[in-house]
Amino acid sequence: MVRTDPYTSSGRVYECLGCGHRSEGDSGRCPDCGNDLKNISVPRE
Ligand SMILES: [Zn+2]
């Protein structure tokens, strides 16, 4: 049985550049302040 981490398992975690709000698997705008969400779970290139 594999235990998954809620912030790394999906591979898609977005963080608001304005307030730091995090959203999993849902890109677009922050529901709190309306700033852009940045994918913070992408591997380094
Ligand atoms: Zn925000």
What are the key terms here?
45 residues, mainly beta, Rubrerythrin, domain 2, three-stranded antiparallel β-sheet, 22% strand, globular, binds zinc ion
What's the helical proportion of residues?
under 10%
What's the number of extended β-strand segments? 3
Q: Rg from C-alpha positions?
A: 11 Å
Termini distance?
A: 31 Å
- Structure classification: mainly beta
Instruction: List the secondary-structure elements in sequence, H or E.
Output: EEE
Q: What can you tell me about this protein's structure?
A:
- By secondary structure, this protein is mostly beta strands.
- It has strands spanning 13-16, 22-24, 37-39.
- Bound molecules: zinc ion.
- Residues 16, 18-19, 21, 30, 32-33, 35 line the site of zinc ion.
Short structural summary:
The protein is mainly beta. It has a single domain, classed as Single Sheet (Rubrerythrin, domain 2). It contains no helices and three strands.
